[in-house]
UniProtKB/TrEMBL annotation:
Keyword hit for Phosphoprotein: no
Species of origin: Drosophila rhopaloa (Fruit fly)
Gene behind the chain: LOC108038665
Any one Gene Ontology BP term: lipid metabolic process
Keyword set, alphabetical order: Signal
Cleavable signal peptide: 1-17
Coiled coil, from the record: none
Any single GO CC term annotated in Swiss-Prot or TrEMBL for this entry: cytoplasm
Residues spanning the membrane: none
Domain Lipocalin/cytosolic fatty-acid binding: 13-85
Protein name: Apolipoprotein D-like
């Protein structure tokens, strides 16, 4: 089951972004995807692996990447966001 929600942005060419939660276990990770048309010939595609842990386990990341793979979403441009020196919240 997909969970869909909308977030409003104040930009000239993009006024609404659609997000799909492709998968989550509700306690450690969520995989989110968005695709928005910029022009009739161009679009923006985004994918996020969101985790509750600053340094998630390899197993958690592997599960999330499998969800991207199952949905035929390229992982070619995924980059790690280092959270090492972030303040604790």
């Amino acid at each position: 089951a997909f969970i869909c929600f909308f977030i409003q942005f104040i930009l000239e060419s993009l006024t609404k972004a659609n997000y799909l939660v492709l998968g989550t276990d509700y306690k450690s990770y969520a995989v989110v995807y968005s695709c928005s048309n910029l022009t009739p010939l161009a679009n923006f595609k985004f994918a996020w692996i969101l985790t509750r842990q600053r340094e998630p386990s390899t197993e958690t990341i592997d599960v999330a990447k499998k969800i991207l793979e199952e949905n035929k979403i390229s992982q070619a441009f995924l980059v790690d966001t280092l959270q090492k020196d972030c303040p604790k919240l």
